[in-house]
Amino acid sequence: MEENKIALITGATRGIGKQIAITLAENGFDIAINYRKENEDLENTKKEIEKIGRKCVAVKGDVSSYEDCENFVKEVIAQYGKIDVLVNNAGITKDTLLMRMKKEDFEDVLNVNLVGTFNVTKNVIPYMMKERNGRIINISSVVGIAGNAGQTNYSASKAGIIGFTKSLAKEVASRNILVNAVAPGFIETNMTDVLKDEIKENIAKNIPLKRMGNAKDVANLVNFLASNESSYITGQVINVDGGMLM
Ligand code: NDP
């Protein structure tokens, strides 16, 4: 169990981010999450974390807005005084073939996934530098490594996150700040719910472990990277994909 540690997880109102927040709370972290709209999902996440016996601070802000990130990071610091772990998880897809892709589809996905990761990290890092301690875990994707037809925008954003991760890891290692990326394969969440059952079955058939992953599979790795057990690991991209990419 970790003690007196604070984790900020973006995009934790549902899906993988929510499970990461719950798993870190179970491991002793107090939690901060951001949200765009007050809704049932947000309330459920807060309730589930508080049921574990940990604090949950929820701050309003869209990760694609630098100003929002500046404000919500300041608010988390005002409430907790520090951030030990940042998980850049918020992400969207707007899939279509490049021939049909609008300029906005490309820009929106880059702005949330990649620029959003920059916006939050840029505002958190000064506090980690001051503490000479920190963990940053960026949620990339296997398609950021392998590519995927219909996802030029998404895979560019996720490949960008990998470059960002490795460069930052080199910049801040001397301050004991470790920066890693997690690359999930196909994970059952709202994001993949849009796929037809037939497509999902086909995907599962081609995964060596013969199933889609779940949010807990990803959260367990993030929890390890956030913990004291991973203190000699930085600048890495670790897949959680049932063996899809080897
Ligand atoms: P979901 O769509 O289930 O959840 C996405 C979360 O991100 C929601 O909490 C959403 O909040 C939040 N979010 C989206 N846009 C913004 C924004 N502009 N500002 C703040 N928060 C935002 O997705 P998953 O849980 O499946 O995905 C989580 C991460 O994992 C993403 O980065 C995704 O790319 C990555 N991933 C997912 C895979 C999968 O198979 N599911 C595979 C590989 C990577 P709101 O409720 O406001 O919309």
Question: What labels describe this entry?
Answer:
246 residues; alpha/beta; Rossmann fold; 7-stranded parallel beta sheet; 9 helices; 7 strands; binds NADPH dihydro-nicotinamide-adenine-dinucleotide phosphate
Concise summary:
With 246 residues, the chain is of the alpha/beta class. 48% of the residues lie in helices and 15% in strands.
Description:
This protein is an alpha/beta fold. The chain has one domain: NAD(P)-binding Rossmann-like Domain (Rossmann fold). Helices cover 48% and strands 15% of the residues. The protein is built from nine helices and seven strands. It has a seven-stranded parallel sheet with strand order 3-2-1-4-5-6-7, with helices on both faces. Strand 1, helix 1 and strand 2 form a beta-alpha-beta unit. Helix 1 runs parallel beside helix 2 (40-52), helix 3 (66-80) packs parallel to helix 4 and helix 4 (103-131) runs parallel beside helix 6 (152-172). The longest helix has 29 residues, at 103-131. The chain binds NADPH dihydro-nicotinamide-adenine-dinucleotide phosphate (NDP). NADPH dihydro-nicotinamide-adenine-dinucleotide phosphate (NDP) binds at residues 10-11, 13-17, 34, 36-37, 41, 62-64, 89-92, 112, 139, 141, 184, 186-187, 189-192.
What binds here, in terms of ligands, is: NADPH dihydro-nicotinamide-adenine-dinucleotide phosphate
CATH superfamily, please? NAD(P)-binding Rossmann-like Domain
Flag low-confidence runs: none
* Rg over alpha carbons: 17 Å
The level 1 CATH classification is Alpha Beta
CATH fold node name:
Rossmann fold
**Termini Cα gap:** 32 Å
The secondary structure category is alpha/beta
Assess the beta-strand content as a share of residues: 15-25%
| Largest sheet properties | 7 strands, parallel
Architecture in CATH?
3-Layer(aba) Sandwich
What is the H/E string? Answer: EHEHEHEHEHHEHHHE
Question: How many extended strands?
Answer: 7
Number of domains: 1
What's the number of helices?
9
| Global morphology | globular
| Strand ordering within the main sheet | 3-2-1-4-5-6-7
